[in-house]
Write a structure and sequence with these properties.
Low-confidence stretches: 1-31, 144-149, 173-186, 270-279, 327-333, 491-500
Structural class: mainly beta
Strand content: 35-45%
Helix content: 10-25%
Mean pLDDT: 77
Strand order of the largest sheet: 9-8-7-6-5-4-3-2-1-17
Length: 500
């Protein structure tokens, strides 16, 4: 487990330290001021919440993740940070102990694709326009990272030869499987969620968010957050989730406090570390990539706002976890004071619950109509209808940071494509290379597609911008861009590799 926590520590030491500096206010942090903090531990192994913290200002953070069969926490898999100054929460997700995705309060998605232990391709997606920005972060070499966009042409002959283009229908009759789920409930209350896409049964990653039901004005029915329960596919367009029912067992908190402190401490104490030369590094990298002009000016402003809001949210969350004080380097860790204030979360579902179905989607998640569930009653079926408009859900480059001479693929997922729609993919490089391919969708070939453009490798430091463009039969145009820069030659690749 030490290796696992060390990696989370390494990632957050850069992400947090670069987004925000150390606070100057040196309050007495010997035990923290937990008198004004509600600290609730959830010890049920079937419930994803590990720890829920809130203060009198209305700020809160929920740590969710994996537990063993006795309810002892093993690792944090998600953080949900709520601040009264923001309309929505900030969500941070992990996969295999690495940051997978961050959703800022304004809805901007930060997606991390790890190339190595310290290097990641970072994609930002605007929830309103679906515009995206691509850049590379290298946690091992922050001082060496060029924060200025590459704009000049590379000398020498440009690449030669055409790209290859493939358009194929996405199959929707996938096998019914049960994916790994954040809850281990072996017994519980079963609910149904039905997905509809373009008038046909849909598929995707879905879950339900569960809250205590609130009747307060402005709450929109959502009281205290109770958990996130993933769905499993049981039929075509048919998914099910399970709410645990064994919520009446109580435990000795002293047996759990060290483990709870450990998983929180490994994340939040790094908030006070300063990584040399990398202060606000992530936001600087984003600003540099924005300057390349790939995204429009309004979206550029939204991305910058998102970066700053994540910084504030993370700093606030870890301050709450330390009892409301800024913990300077060398001061006692999160656990000093937290264990004294920790209480066991109530496990009963006696009060009404507010349940919201959610589908993971781009550029933003899709929410279905909610329901209020009374204890001992049956759950109502819920439905999520995916937008019937033509959509470019994603555009990914693989690999996201190719070595010089290494080919790559641009892959776009397209949904609700009517017959007669034109699909055009193109690439333009700073070495002068460009190519464009297209096709018209025919009748009775499907509604959802994956478009792939195979692009030839280029010299070091060449920047490519790939574009996917959709022209509907009514003349509406939808487009999306992604970019990458070729690295210097790697020891793992031969310098002459420049063909597909």
């Amino acid at each position: 487990m030490k290796k696992t926590y060390f990696f989370i520590f390494t990632v957050f030491s850069v992400l947090l330290a670069t987004l925000t500096g150390c606070q100057e206010d040196q309050e007495d942090a010997s035990l923290g001021n937990f008198d004004k903090t509600e600290a609730l531990a959830n010890l049920n192994p079937n419930e994803p919440i590990i720890l829920s913290l809130s203060n009198e200002k209305g700020e809160s953070v929920v740590f969710m993740g994996s537990k063993d069969d006795t309810g002892h926490p093993e690792a944090v898999e998600q953080m949900i940070i709520t601040m009264p100054s923001e309309e929505a929460s900030t969500e941070i997700s992990f996969e295999n102990d690495r940051i997978k995705e961050v959703i800022a309060a304004n809805g901007v998605k930060f997606q991390f694709e790890w190339i190595s232990a310290t290097k990641a391709a970072l994609t930002l997606v605007d929830p309103n326009t679906n515009e995206q920005l691509n850049t590379i972060i290298d946690l091992a070499n922050p001082d060496m990272q060029n924060t200025q966009p590459y704009t000049r042409s590379v000398s020498g002959d440009p690449r030669k030869g055409d790209c290859q283009f493939v358009l194929k229908a996405i199959e929707t009759d996938e096998a019914v499987t049960e994916p790994a789920t954040i809850t281990r409930a072996s017994d519980g209350i079963i609910g149904n969620v039905y997905l509809e896409q373009c008038g046909t049964p849909g598929s995707g990653e879905c879950w339900v968010n569960v809250y205590d039901h609130s009747t307060l004005a402005g709450s929109h029915g959502q009281g205290k957050f109770r958990g996130k329960f993933k769905c499993k596919k049981v039929g075509e367009g048919h998914y099910q989730y399970k709410l645990p029912i064994n919520y009446h067992e109580h435990h000795d908190l002293a047996d759990y406090c060290d483990e709870i402190n450990d998983v929180v401490d490994k994340i939040c104490t790094v908030n006070e570390f300063t990584y040399p030369g990398t202060k606000q590094y992530l936001c600087l990298m984003i600003s540099g990539a924005i300057a390349s002009g790939v995204v429009s000016a309004p979206v550029a402003a939204i991305f910058n706002t998102a970066c700053l809001s994540i910084s504030t949210a993370l700093d606030t969350a870890c301050k709450i976890a330390n009892g409301g004080v800024d913990n300077p380097i060398g001061a006692p860790n999160v656990g000093n004071g937290l264990c004294q204030a920790l209480r066991q979360m109530g496990y009963t579902w006696d009060t009404p619950l507010y349940i919201v179905p959610v589908l993971s989607a781009m550029p933003s998640n899709i929410y279905g109509p909610s329901q209020v569930w009374e204890a001992n009653s049956e759950l109502k079926d819920m439905q999520i209808i995916i937008n019937h408009k033509p959509t470019i859900r994603s555009l990914n480059l693989n690999p996201p940071a190719p070595d010089a001479g290494e080919p790559y693929t641009a892959i776009a997922d397209l949904y609700c494509m009517a017959p007669g729609t034109q699909v055009i993919m193109s690439v333009k490089g700073t070495d002068g290379y460009s190519d464009q391919k297209g096709i018209v969708i025919e009748e009775n070939t499907g509604v959802n597609y994956q478009a792939t453009l195979y692009v030839r490798g280029a010299k070091p430091k060449v920047k490519d911008i790939c574009t996917i463009q959709i022209i509907t039969p009514k003349g509406e145009t939808i487009s999306k861009k992604a970019s990458l820069v070729f690295n210097n030659y790697s020891n793992d690749h031969e310098q002459g590799r420049d063909s597909i």
